[in-house]
Design a protein that fits this description.
10-stranded antiparallel beta sheet, alpha+beta
Length: 273
Amino acid sequence: MLNRRGLTLIELLVALTLAAVVLGSATTSLLRQQRTNALIRSSANADLQRTASLGVLASQLALLDPADVASGQALDTAIQVRAGIATSTSCAAGIGFATFGTDTASGVSARPDVGDTLWWRGDTSWTPAEIVGTNQVSSACLSGAPVMQVVVRQRDTIPVDVPLRVTRQTRYALYKSSDGTWQLGVREWSPSVHGFAAPQPFAGPFVQKSGIRRTGFRYFDESGVEMSGASVDVSRIARLRITAHSFLDTRERGQDSIRTDSVDVSFARPHAP
């Protein structure tokens, strides 16, 4: 008959202590892994927001020249521009209207509307006219395919085969949303309300200001000298810098840190006076 000896109290305590150490180490490792994953997700989200905002804004503003910036509206938290929404050439001569020489899906990022501005290129300069109506017409230019025709307030003659450009007053701005966060958004001019429509956010939230750091816009002349203040001379703007700051929740330190990125946009494509 086998003689089995049970565990002594000391052996039992040692075993429990070892088990506690192993479980504690495993728990600590798991918590550290969770914190690391949370940090990676937070960092990736912050980077995504900054990349989205800078990419969208840079692609839009790179198509402009200083004449497209509204006088007195080059601010540190906002910039108001006449954004190009359609380009083409005139299909036929018209008095008080222009017929686009391309179908409505070509060269158009947004459909022209009442209140937008049509520009056509003469011998040496561009001529603006306020759009008061739009139509879809069949055109011999495209073998009867539908094309866009815009009616303007002025009764000028718009020649055939001249370059056309449609612009819309657009405001890109950092604003405080209803939930208290700061967002980068866009506001388009609305003739129905005779003002800018409510902002539509496209990236955020961002840090509006932290010490000397600020999300927004900075302006430089051809010499690289920064222009600041409430009355930036828009005709001298050669380069625009967009900067975005976003929170990164580090958790391990128990406080938030800030991630920063910026992009420069050069105004090098003259369009209109």
